[in-house]
Design a protein that fits this description.
- The protein has 131 residues and is mainly alpha-helical.
- It has one domain (27-123).
- 51% of the residues lie in helices and 6% in strands.
- It has a two-stranded antiparallel ribbon with strand order 1-2.
- α1 runs parallel beside α6 and α4 (83-93) packs across α5.
- It is globular, with a radius of gyration of 16 Å.
């Protein structure tokens, strides 16, 4: 029998989906190669500071749109496949974003509650309305 998902998990999924939707609206093309669907399969929302860092997980500034190759698969320049090259690329091409990442990569937030997720969802929905 499948385990019942907690309300907190459901709220996290909702916030994740909303954040990714916003990032793809802001970045409709790959930030590296400038390709867009249908040339590339899709644009994926990448967290510049890893998703495990809850304080920045849903910050709009923490996202960038990438094609699958530059998100995961390229061994020469991709966020996951070649992170050092990607970091160098980000610093050279988007210094403002790189600076934000450097300033916020140690941000922390506690505790993570259902209320905290609801606040993030509300903030993201308000941002989305302004797009």
């Amino acid at each position: 029998m499948p385990r019942k998902r907690s309300q907190k998990s459901k709220l996290q999924d909702q916030a994740d989906a909303l954040w990714a939707e916003i990032i793809r609206c802001i970045w409709p093309r790959c930030a590296v190669c400038n390709e867009a669907p249908p040339v590339v399969r899709n644009i994926q929302a990448h967290h510049l500071i890893g998703r495990a860092r809850r304080a920045t997980r849903y910050k709009i500034e923490n996202g960038i749109g990438l094609c699958p190759s530059h998100h995961v698969f390229s061994s020469t320049l991709s966020a996951h496949g070649a992170p050092l090259a990607f970091s160098d690329w980000l610093r050279a091409t988007h210094p403002g974003i790189d600076q934000w990442v450097r300033e916020h990569h140690r941000d922390i937030v506690t505790p993570i509650t259902e209320g905290w997720y609801r606040e993030q969802i509300e903030r993201l929905e308000q941002f989305k309305e302004g797009l």
